[in-house]
């Protein structure tokens, strides 16, 4: 039987990656899976022991990894993709890595004849398993067009954000607004609670005015029910804010709101809640 789509290597099977990889299987794309956790890769029929083996079997590879250092090791390390890939391989970094990492790795991968584009995603786990992500693509137009068949399977919308690294910039900018929005709602709630005012009245008026937001109606609503089930890990929010601050510094920008928001996610991670949803900042003491 002829395969409709080429095999896709998928490296990184965390909260988002596993759902995305399973969705590819659901739409009849053969997946060659790798994660450092044997239990996670054991969920897939075609699982391998290293990124190198992924590269040996696939010329389309998606990375969905937690940290820039991990991305570098997976792409360029001795047991990584670059040294073992066939010329013409396309790697799509869908992690939130920051533009500098992808740009540097792309230069190194070019010596192996491997192309790299970035495609970090918007929305969360609720969209990852349905192919309804927003994909923020960075690369040359021809590269993004070549990868569109894959993007269209994983996302309901694909935005070409500019040259390599631009998807990362848009993702980090979006996460500034996401994290700052939640932090502002948290501070507003703390002020009302600490002052003896009705928090119910505050939430009601916020939902009827310009203070309304997705975070208020979703993350905050869950957090006030002590539901910190994963949408977006607090530790990853903290990592992304650090990446955003670094990107802003390189651009010569002052971003005090971003720096201020980071405070609450640092506190939450230091309190041991980094593996919970970022709404766990509401657990912090008044």
Topology:
Layout: E1 8-11, H1 17-26, E2 31-34, H2 38-41, H3 51-57, E3 60-63, H4 68-76, E4 90-93, H5 99-109, E5 115-118, E6 121-122, H6 125-128, E7 133-138, H7 141-146, H8 148-154, E8 155-162, H9 166-194, H10 199-208, H11 214-223, H12 234-250, H13 256-270
Parallel strand pairs: 1-2, 1-3, 3-4, 4-5, 7-8
Antiparallel strand pairs: 6-7
Helix pairs in contact: 4-5, 9-11, 9-12, 9-13, 12-13
Question: Would you give an account of this structure?
Answer:
This protein has 286 residues and is an alpha/beta fold. It folds into two domains: 8-164, Rossmann fold (3-Layer(aba) Sandwich); 169-283, N-(1-d-carboxylethyl)-l-norvaline Dehydrogenase, domain 2. Helix content is 49%, strand content 13%. It has 13 helices and eight strands. The longest helix has 29 residues, at 166-194. The protein is elongated and about 65 Å long. The N and C termini lie far apart (62 Å). 45% of the residues are buried.
